[in-house]
Amino acid sequence: MSHGYAPDGRPVAPPPVPLEKIVGDVVDNLQAAAEAEVALLKARGALAYHGAGWTSAWGFVAGSALVVAMLALAFGAILVLAQHVGPLLATLIVVAVLVAVAAFAGWRAKLSYGDVKAAFRDDFLAKGDD
């Protein structure tokens, strides 16, 4: 319990810190923060690069498998239809259906591309089509 009595007198106040020291510490802290931010950006970039590489590789495998599956489906459809309408008409029917599917997919891709263009446009609310 203290009664306010200090045997050696009042405590001595620490000397004031020079302004140059304070400014130097602030600059050092800002530099360290900037270096940490750059390191974080580099790490995120490396992770994105790694992810993009594997994504494209697996996307290529998936796309190739889909193409082979579509070819098998087309050949199977031609073989089944050929028994009923003949080989030439069966081929034309399958080609027409695949062209219709491709046209629908292209139309949907065009709509999605419009969304991407709108997202990167400076004037987001612009009515005109770029």
Account of the 3D structure:
With 130 residues, the chain is mainly alpha-helical. Helices cover 78% and strands 0% of the residues. The protein contains two helices and no strands. It has helices at residues 19-85, 87-120. The longest helix has 67 residues, at 19-85. The termini are far apart.
Task: Describe the global form.
Answer: rod-shaped
Along the chain, the helix and strand elements come as HH
Strand fraction equals under 5%
Secondary-structure class: mainly alpha
Largest sheet, in brief, is: none
**How many helices in DSSP terms?**
2
Task: Return the average pLDDT rounded to an integer.
Answer: 84
Unreliable stretches (pLDDT < 50, length at least 5) are none
Total strands: 0
CA gyration radius, whole angstroms: 35 Å
Question: Helicity, in percent?
Answer: over 70%
Distance between the termini: 80 Å
